[in-house]
From TrEMBL:
InterPro entries: GH39_cat. Pfam families: Glyco_hydro_39 (PF01229). Keywords: Glycosidase, Hydrolase. It comes from Nonomuraea diastatica. It comes from the Bacteria. Residues 4-71 form the Glycosyl hydrolases family 39 N-terminal catalytic domain. GO terms for molecular function: hydrolase activity, acting on glycosyl bonds. This is Glycosyl hydrolases family 39 N-terminal catalytic domain-containing protein.
Amino acid sequence: MGVSAYRERTIELTVDGLDGPHTVTHHRIDHDHSNVEAVWRSMGGGAWPADEQWDRLRAANTLDEAAPPRTVEGGTVTLTSDLPMPGVSLIELTP
């Protein structure tokens, strides 16, 4: 099933009271990001991974960034992103 078969929604997050610049890091879990099961299916799936498949599965077992980190100024910040369904975003703001 291709990504086009998944619905997307637009999310908007507003954060008030940021003191100074912050780095925004956006991680995602969805069909194309942080999805070990999709990697497993792309290798043919099956009952259990063969010994030679484990390294690729371990390498895919990460929390992927949906976008490169960026810097925002303090005060009020509004972040907008598309989010596939099903999907989860983790947005970190680090001073």
